[in-house]
Amino acid sequence: MYKIFIVEDDNTISSIIEEKLNKWGYKTLRVSNFNDILSNYTSFEPHLILMDINLPYYDGFYWCGKIRQLSNVPIIFISSRDTDGDKIRAITQGGDDYIEKPFSMDLLIAKVQAILRRAYSYSDQTLNILQHKDMILDIEHLKVFCGEKEIELTRNECRILSMLIRNHDRLVKRTRLMKALWDDESFVDDNTLTVNVNRLRRKLEMIGLKEYIKTIKGEGYRLI
């Protein structure tokens, strides 16, 4: 069971985050003593930290620096600060991602799962999240996230995109995609796959992911 350390001084927000994470099967610890965050961290030994920036006593940047002296545990900053300077500082001082308040809980879960997958077990199929560059695919909820934007997919669109992500460094042939979608491609009009891919492309463009899927004429598709 993955353990997540919640460093957020707004009790309402931290309790909502904790409830959502618990429903997903994560073990959580919410900070109660903001003057001694490091002791809580070392005793809990989390797999990931959600860190607010505006905290009592010392800010999140300070605690991130302290934790980085001990560990490379993934840290996601969550903050109402929206300037590029704050976001750049968060990343350069050791943060792995940055979520701006207010945020979607679905987006938070997607980012948590994507980072856990990268950090601990990329082949862990219990984490139904795939990532390619700035795009995060939530397979269970049929959603794609890019920054703060999100779209919903059909099941077939999700299957196409998940196969392309899992094979992001190579061509995926049309016959392979059709087998994955419809079991026996001989019963499927070849144009049906094209229609699904084109719909997926249009949806990705809606969240700024233009020309992410490249067509290899007469063969198949690959991500760029």
UniProtKB/TrEMBL annotation:
CDD domains from the UniProt entry: trans_reg_C
Gene3D superfamilies associated with the record: 3.40.50.2300, 6.10.250.690, Winged helix-like DNA-binding domain superfamily/Winged helix DNA-binding domain
Domain OmpR/PhoB-type: 127-224
Keyword Transcription regulation: yes
Top-level taxon of the source organism: Bacteria
Residues annotated with 4-aspartylphosphate modification: 52
One GO biological process term: regulation of DNA-templated transcription
Membrane-spanning ranges: none
PROSITE patterns assigned: OMPR_PHOB, RESPONSE_REGULATORY
Residue ranges the UniProt entry marks as DNA-binding: 127-224
Alphabetical keyword list: DNA-binding, Phosphoprotein, Transcription, Transcription regulation
Pfam family, one: Response_reg
Protein name (Swiss-Prot/TrEMBL): Stage 0 sporulation protein A homolog
UniProt organism field: Anaerovirgula multivorans
Lineage: Bacteria, Bacillati, Bacillota, Clostridia, Peptostreptococcales
